[in-house]
């Protein structure tokens, strides 16, 4: 099994690479900043760079001798209220989470077709159930699923495509949101990293190619409700947000000032 993992030096990526290596797979990673103690060889690559991605992918495939599985794991989060105009941080989330995946997958497409391989997209629960004050991340992950759907239609005769939907896992991806006073604490229930890694491996290695895979039973329920009863999940999230405002969870958070003001002036 020849595997390429993006975001290989991050929390998810390192764990996925270590598990795959333990199973006997040949694994090469891509990451903007490879770590000195990464469990596999990780090539430095900025996935937002149109010219750099094909070069790095070609080098990875040369080391692997082909490609059976691509795991698109790289991604970043950050605060992004929908009511405010998009800035550089928003554009970077969209560029890395969506277009970085697109660039990498396009560079791998021929090798995956030749091997009758698979692609795993690490999406998010927020692809189907948006949380407030994080519009860029949710939009990028929902768009990622749309890209996966198109890829499945185009390559599905030869390549399996699966989207995995973690909820929230404690990792540095939440640091910038917490620093802005917009912590997910109280809005999401954290899940263990091992469950996410296990689901990613099931998506990539299981006998049956699955279209969508939530990572927990709770996540499966949320996924079902968000897909089939979106008005209900909107009400649940809105009620949770109102409770957070009443508890002064966003006190002093400039980016949440509009939300707080409107909730406090609502009848």
TrEMBL record:
Report the record's Gene Ontology biological process terms. phosphatidic acid biosynthetic process; triglyceride catabolic process
Q: Which Gene3D superfamilies match?
A: NAD(P)-binding Rossmann-like Domain (3.40.50.720)
* UniProt GO molecular function: acylglycerone-phosphate reductase (NADP+) activity; triacylglycerol lipase activity
What keywords are annotated for this sequence in UniProt?
Oxidoreductase
Spell out the GO cellular component terms annotated for this protein, sorted alphabetically and separated by semicolons: lipid droplet
Superkingdom of this entry's organism? Answer: Bacteria
Record-linked InterPro entries:
NAD(P)-bd_dom_sf, Sc_DH/Rdtase_CS, SDR_fam
Q: Where are the transmembrane segments?
A: none
> PANTHER family from the entry?
NADPH-DEPENDENT 1-ACYLDIHYDROXYACETONE PHOSPHATE REDUCTASE (PTHR44169), PROTEIN DLTE (PTHR44169:SF14)
Entry's family note: Belongs to the short-chain dehydrogenases/reductases (SDR) family.
- Annotated protein name in UniProt: SDR family NAD(P)-dependent oxidoreductase
Which source organism does the UniProt entry give? Answer: Streptomyces xanthii
């Amino acid at each position: 099994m020849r595997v390429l993992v993006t975001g290989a030096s991050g929390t998810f990526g390192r764990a996925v690479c270590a598990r795959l290596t333990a199973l006997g797979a040949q694994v090469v990673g891509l990451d903007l900043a490879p770590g000195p103690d990464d469990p596999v060889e990780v090539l430095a690559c900025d996935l937002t760079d149109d010219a750099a991605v094909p070069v790095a992918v070609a080098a990875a495939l040369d080391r692997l001798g082909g490609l059976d599985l691509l795991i698109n794991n790289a991604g970043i989060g950050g605060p992004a209220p929908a009511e405010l105009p998009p800035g550089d941080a928003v554009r970077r989330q969209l560029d890395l989470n969506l277009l970085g995946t697109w660039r990498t997958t396009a560079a791998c497409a021929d090798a995956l077709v030749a091997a009758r391989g698979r692609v795993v997209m690490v999406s998010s629960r927020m692809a189907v159930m948006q949380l407030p004050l994080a519009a860029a991340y949710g939009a990028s992950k929902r768009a990622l699923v749309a890209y996966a759907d198109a890829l499945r239609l185009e390559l599905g005769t030869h390549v399996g495509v699966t989207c995995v939907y973690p909820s929230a896992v404690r990792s540095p991806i939440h640091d910038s949101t917490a620093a802005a006073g917009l912590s997910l604490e109280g809005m999401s229930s954290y899940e263990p990293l091992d469950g996410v890694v296990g689901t990613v491996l099931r998506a990539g290695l299981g006998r049956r190619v699955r279209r969508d895979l939530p990572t927990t039973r709770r996540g499966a329920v949320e996924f079902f409700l968000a897909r089939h009863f979106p008005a209900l999940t909107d009400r649940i999230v809105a009620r949770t947000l109102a409770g957070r405002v009443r508890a002064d969870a966003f006190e002093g958070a400039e980016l949440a000032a509009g939300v707080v003001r409107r909730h406090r002036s609502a009848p």
